[in-house]
Amino acid sequence: MADRAKGIPIAREGVPFVMGALAPAVLAWLWGCRKTSMAFGVLACGTGWFFRNPARTIPRGDNLVLASGDGKVIAVQEEFEPRYLKDQSIRISIFLNLFDVHINRMPCAGSVVDVAYQPGRFTNADDPEATVHNEQNAVMIETPSKKKVLCVQIAGLLARRIACWVGPGDVAVPGERFGLIRFGSRMDTFFPVDSRVRVRVGDRVRGGESILAEVA
User: Fold this and answer.
1) Where exactly are the structural domains of the chain?
2) CATH (residue range 64-214)
3) Would you please indicate which residues are annotated as catalytic (active-site) residues?
4) Which pLDDT tens digit goes with each residue over 48-67?
5) Which residue, 13, 99, 110, 149, has most beta carbons within 10 Å?
6) Strands, E, within 157-214: which ranges?
7) Judging by beta carbons within 10 Å of its beta carbon (0-12, 13-18, 19+), is residue 61 exposed, middle or buried?
8) 159 has pLDDT over 60
9) Torsion-angle region of residue 165: left (phi > 0), alpha (psi -120 to 50) or beta?
10) How many other CB atoms sit within 10 Å of the CB of residue 76?
């Protein structure tokens, strides 16, 4: 899987939004409207900050499950995953607020066996019902040891577009960027119940850098 966002300061999906604020800032400055120009300039900087694409130091380890996004852990629980895994699993949910990095990263090594998009609602991403009812995109990964890891991008209250840059057959490389959710969202990661969980509710994690669990 090629990391299409590597080496650029902001995600490509953010460029139209930044330019949409920067262009009127320049025009207003040329027309002598300094306050208007500054307002649009601040908006452009804020938009660029939202779509920022920082480099990360990726931990090494074949059995590691990494955080798929930046944010706060809002759930760590065992449950039956009925749609994709169809088995008992541990789910870790990460809530991304407007100030978090919204680039999504691969949680583990392996191969992408399926990608499934589901249209849905746009309720608050920290609502438990968002797991089932919100717009979402699921990426199924099979690890080299034949374990199944499911990573789900879930749109939130303000989110209106999920971008996913991988498809079935792609190689999953831990920590590499694979997608983006615009303006508030959540990442759910499901993995086998015999895994060793390394985080708890309330922890802050960084995508591609923080370890969620070790798969047995």
Assistant:
1) 12-50, 64-214
2) 2.70.70.10
3) 185
4) 777 788 889 999 988 999 99
5) 149
6) 162-164, 171-172, 177-181, 185-191, 196-197, 204-205, 211-214
7) middle
8) no
9) alpha
10) 17
